[in-house]
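Q: Could you fold this chain for me?
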Amino acid sequence: MALSGHAMILHPLQSKSMTHGHRLPLFPALEMHRTETKGHLPQAFTGKGIKKNKPLHLLVSRAAIGSSGGSDSSLQIIKELYSSINKKDLKSLGALLSQDCFVDDFSFPQPFEGKKEALCFFEELITSMGQNTEFVIEHICGGIDQTAVVNWHLEWKKKQVPFTRGCSCYELSKEGEQLVIKKAQVIIESPVKPGGLALTVFKGINLIFDAFPGATESCRVPK
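A: Sure. Below is the predicted structure, expressed as structure tokens.
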């Protein structure tokens, strides 16, 4: 979903229920098996350090292969979501969301709860994308219980924008006879690349946790 590109950071939104919002647990594991798919990413902006495209290795769910009706329907809804964003069609986009839609973009401090807040989020996203930027789906796969995962990036006039790769997880449900998006979690690429330093810091934190287990266990993780 995501949904948000790096440009989203330039247009922060304030959710009415942010002070009460909580991040929900991660999605249930997808029922996956390994397969190999080779492909190439679109032309990127020129610059130093850009390497040639390499083959991609993709995990695809059993449900996404062949013509399994439920999974195909879920994947089609997700594709329609990105198509509506690219077309700047808020009316069609709104029809894809459940009334209790929950959008958790990790670029924001709190999630967006309810269809009204979710639509405000998407409207601001579409505005921030301008006239020539659009989402491009790299991979999409379906899982159990009407779930789907998408890898995507943003392109400006068919050229990939740096630091706009992302991964979105979706959970869908039925409202009457219509399949709609109930939950979305969005993780986007960080423009900061700490590399091995991140692992060094992570190791140091865990050493502190292990050295002071009592204090660590008494700490409450903010939600």
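A (continued): Residues 63 and 142 are 6 Å apart (CA to CA).
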